[in-house]
Design goal:
alpha/beta, Dihydrofolate synthase/folylpolyglutamate synthase, Mur_ligase_cen, 2 domains, globular
């Protein structure tokens, strides 16, 4: 594989190919290398106020909610998220918009000059590249989504204005540990002394609050400092003097409540009319996203038990309306397939399973084994790919059936690409 260093006139694809090839590990824990490179090129010396957002699920939707509420008040906002669905450019937004390839190329070129002989992973390049772009755009606020855990994630080199934890569940056990207490301790690594730390999880492990107290973080906790209650069509959010009843948005109410609390803690909460308008218009790709009306098709990135519980909630509302549920699932090999299927299988009338290509993709037969342990569906259809499955399923789909395609960001990307064609 070529190690030829691309230039500022190279394509973004050339750069991404290079970034994938220069570090032997996909994930490398530890902050020293990344911090050194960031300091070499002055990325940490920035006037932007940075909000770090960690969590097993809900980072992307919480960031999107914060972004919308800040933009509506006239602030400039840079948002960094991962992974992307279709194009790398989705990972970095400035004022809600993706950027032209050249922004990323210039940032990677700057990093290549400044890293000297320090090896960086693909994610570390992406994180530093985003920080370089936000610095050049001189944004007021940066919303930085943590990639993995918190303590040793590349994003944790920054000095945050506030730290936000959305949810805590088991994922990436080989790096973060196999209990919620271990995962929570790792995520709490993004807290700083005397700095706001907003925790949206509904059952906060003591390891997180113990660490917060130990370093004297200014914690605001879900369930005690702020609460939200879901109703059929709305949710109620209460924090200090605020008590709002708001129509349910297209994202989990828990994440909307966490975003609202974060802005309130930072004295950045907009007017009630702006809040209502922003939440009503929120759209997040790949989060229970409707791809087609006839036939009725949705897609969702749910890939761990907690996100599958949220998906089950959505599916049950269609079940209540009389729809049959046909599920098409494709997942990565390192995910808790049985745990995910357990959350939704009682709602599903027909299963289709597809293999995912790529080094981490799992096979339809492995998914079938995981599913068989839970239920004895008479028919489980298996396919070599999401596209092959859709070629068969869609022409046959009845008007009383809702198809849900889920299991991974790769699965959702495959579904979106299919419908675009």
């Amino acid at each position: 594989m070529t190690k030829k260093i691309p230039s500022q006139s190279s394509s973004l694809d050339d750069w991404l190919f290079y970034l994938e090839s220069v570090h032997p590990a996909n994930i490398a824990m530890g902050l020293e290398r990344v911090a050194n490179v960031a300091n070499n090129i002055g990325l940490l010396n920035t006037p932007s106020k940075i909000i770090l957002i960690a969590g097993t699920n809900g980072k992307g939707t919480t960031a999107r909610c914060l972004e919308s509420l800040l933009l509506a008040q006239g602030f400039s906002v840079g948002t960094y998220a991962s992974p992307h669905l279709i194009r790398y450019n989705e990972r970095v937004r400035v004022n809600g918009e993706e950027l032209a390839d050249q922004f990323h190329i210039d940032a990677f070129h700057q990093l290549e000059q400044g890293r000297k002989d320090t090896a960086l992973t693909y994610f570390e390049y992406g994180t530093l590249g985003a920080l370089a772009i936000f610095k050049s755009c001189n944004v007021d606020y940066v919303l930085l989504e943590v990639g993995l855990g918190g303590r040793f994630d590349a994003t944790n080199i920054v000095n945050p204005f506030a730290s936000v934890i959305t949810t805590i569940d088991l994922d990436h056990k080989e790096y973060l540990g196999d209990t919620r207490e271990l995962v929570a301790y790792d995520k709490a690594g993004i807290f700083r002394e005397n700095t706001p730390a907003i925790i949206g999880d509904l059952n906060i492990p003591h390891t997180m609050t113990d660490y917060g107290k130990e370093i004297n973080a200014n914690m605001t906790l879900s369930g005690s400092d702020f609460i939200f209650k879901e109703n059929a069509e709305s949710f109620n959010w209460q924090y200090k003097e605020h008590n709002l009843e708001i129509d349910k948005p297209a994202i989990p109410c828990q994440n909307a409540a966490t975003a609202l609390t974060t802005l309130s803690v930072l004295n950045l909460l907009p007017s009630e009319s702006i809040i209502r308008s922003c939440l009503a218009n929120l759209v997040v790709e790949g989060r229970f996203q409707q791809l087609s009306v006839e036939p009725l098709v949705f897609t969702d990135v749910a890939h761990n038990p907690e996100s599958a519980r949220y998906l089950a909630n959505k599916l049950s509302s269609y079940k209540d309306k009389g729809f049959k549920i046909h599920a098409l699932a494709a997942m990565l090999a390192d995910k808790d397939k049985a745990g995910v299927f357990k959350e939704v299988s009682h709602l599903v009338d027909e299963w289709s399973l597809a293999s995912l290509s790529g080094p981490r993709g799992d096979t339809a037969s492995n998914l079938q084994n995981a599913l068989h342990e839970l239920s004895h569906h008479n028919t489980i259809n298996s396919y070599d790919s999401v596209a092959q499955a859709l070629n068969v399923i869609l022409p046959e789909q009845q008007s009383d059936t809702m198809l849900i395609i889920f299991g991974s960001f790769f699965t959702v990307a495959g579904a979106i690409n299919y419908f675009k064609k």
